[in-house]
TrEMBL record:
Essential for the control of the cell cycle at the G2/M (mitosis) transition. The keyword ATP-binding does not apply. It comes from the Eukaryota. PROSITE patterns: CYCLINS. This is Cyclin-like domain-containing protein. InterPro entries: Cyclin (IPR039361), Cyclin-like_dom (IPR013763), Cyclin-like_sf (IPR036915), Cyclin_N (IPR006671), Cyclins_cyclin-box (IPR048258). It is found in: Cytoplasm; Nucleus. Residues 61-145 form the Cyclin-like domain. Transmembrane segments: none annotated. Pfam families: Cyclin_N. Belongs to the cyclin family. Cyclin D subfamily. GO terms for biological process: cell division.
Length: 194
């Protein structure tokens, strides 16, 4: 008996479930749960002494560029930024560790959202080898601990389909509108304005 492997390099994603998208309770639950995953105040005023807003913007821009170059799923970058902000809201961090933290957050988000997650080695290459894979793996445990292993955060991307389905939009424009919304979400997450 001969077995043939018919797998291809393309990834087939499940389609959104219309039963879930049309249920108002799902949207209400997302709005309620979202509150749990947002820092309650500006961590630059209290927790962070070494890191300034422009530094966060720089690491966020770098993270977005890595995600784009690696063709990550659209959910990876906003989720990684959620982890970064939640960590910075509770742990005073030195500026020399900010890129390491960003790499760890991308590493975790890609594990949760990607079919083929980013590797520690690849992320270290993107830091110009300023960090080692072992450092990244050690910090992964630190970040997981501080986030209490609660990684299934609600991000703006979770709302896109729920909102788009409720708007009177022409079917042929939906893909373009989704793309614009995702771009806007990425710009907001980096702290840049369009």
């Amino acid at each position: 008996m001969e077995l043939l492997c018919l797998e291809m390099d393309t990834i087939i994603r499940a389609r959104p479930d219309p039963n879930l998208l049309c249920d108002d309770r799902i949207l209400q639950n997302l709005l309620t749960i979202e509150e749990r995953f947002l820092p309650q105040y500006s961590y630059f005023k209290g927790v962070q002494k070494d890191i300034q807003p422009f530094m966060r913007r720089m690491v966020a821009t770098w993270m977005l560029e890595v995600c784009e170059e690696q063709k990550c799923e659209e959910e990876v970058f906003p989720l990684a930024m959620n982890y970064l902000d939640r960590f910075l809201a509770v742990v005073p961090t030195k500026k020399c560790n900010l890129q390491l933290l960003g790499a760890v957050c991308m590493f975790l988000a890609s594990k949760l959202k990607e079919t083929r997650p980013l590797t520690a080695e690849k992320l270290c290459i993107y830091t110009d080898n300023s960090i080692r894979p072992q450092e990244l793996l050690e910090w992964e445990l630190v970040v997981l601990g501080k986030l209490k292993w609660n990684l299934a955060a609600v991000t703006p991307n979770d709302f896109i389909e729920h909102i788009v389905r409720r708007l009177p939009l022409p079917e042929d424009k939906l893909a373009l509108i989704r793309k614009h919304v995702q771009t806007f979400i990425a710009l907001c997450a980096t702290g840049r304005t369009p």
